[in-house]
Amino acid sequence: MFGSAPQRPVAMTTAQRDSLLWKLAGLLRESGDVVLSGCSTLSLLTPTLQQLNHVFELHLGPWGPGQTGFVALPSHPADSPVILQLQFLFDVLQKTLSLKLVHVAGPGPTGPIKIFPFKSLRHLELRGVPLHCLHGLRGIYSQLETLICSRSLQALEELLSACGGDFCSALPWLALLSANFSYNALTALDSSLRLLSALRFLNLSHNQVQDCQGFLMDLCELHHLDISYNRLHLVPRMGPSGAALGVLILRGNELRSLHGLEQLRNLRHLDLAYNLLEGHRELSPLWLLAELRKLYLEGNPLWFHPEHRAATAQYLSPRARDAATGFLLDGKVLSLTDFQTHTSLGLSPMGPPLPWPVGSTPETSGGPDLSDSLSSGGVVTQPLLCVSGSSSHSAA
Q: pTM of this prediction?
């Protein structure tokens, strides 16, 4: 990975700008094949992209606001090395498949951040980018397969419906399979999610959402939903879209009931750790989840019950309990002892939860582990090819 520490952007002199262009061109001539193949992600600071766009428009443009598709550059004299470098850089950017933009705030207002040169993008990551300054998304949103946006959003519609600073009315994102909107300032979901009809992986973790209000019901292809570390009081309503859901991560919310969970019949992985589930009777919806193979309950009040594992076993579907590969409860396979204890105690699926021992007080766990679920199955990020406006680069 190539990179350097982000620095506060300052106005570049012509010499500094030329130096940046030469270094970036040299880096891409050396390692551009992994960018063009999609094996690595090109990572740029927003000031660097703004400088590139400035020189592109100065020497290779101008282009009209409605310009779409690949740009055929005019021929220039071969004795103009700067123009040749710019042509090379622009051509590489047009063919880049994966881009990560990291915003570095300057002392003044942020100018336009244009992703117009990137015609072939399939994977886009935005970190801290002010969306009202982002221009050019409307030209590529329909071809994106992966979208990551963190520390930028206050409402999903800013990105999904308005396409950031393009302020357009987006049509469905037909190619988008994976969306990660974690670590934002979302307090609610909205109807713009209906535009993601092909989505299979959705990460909404580390926000402040209290109620999903049925906005997930149109995601009929959704297989993996991570909405951990929010403020949910209710299990998200999925409707028909719940038929495909195999992984649901609700860790670190404020759930006291699992009502509605019984509709998600194909769940295999369920993370309910660090919620407010008090009695094992609240687990009764699990009886209908015949495909369930992994369950996490640590950090809930019921987790401190002395017979927690046996009490949980009584609410599992017989098919789940008899799984040949074993059932994982809180990361450990349910043992024969757990089932024998369950039988010896005379527990039944509709029986009352085991009482707390008289005079005992459940201890606290000391708070949740702020890391994500250990087996969440999240998308693995690609290696980065990092470029900034700094005067030095280091290989890692």
A: 0.82
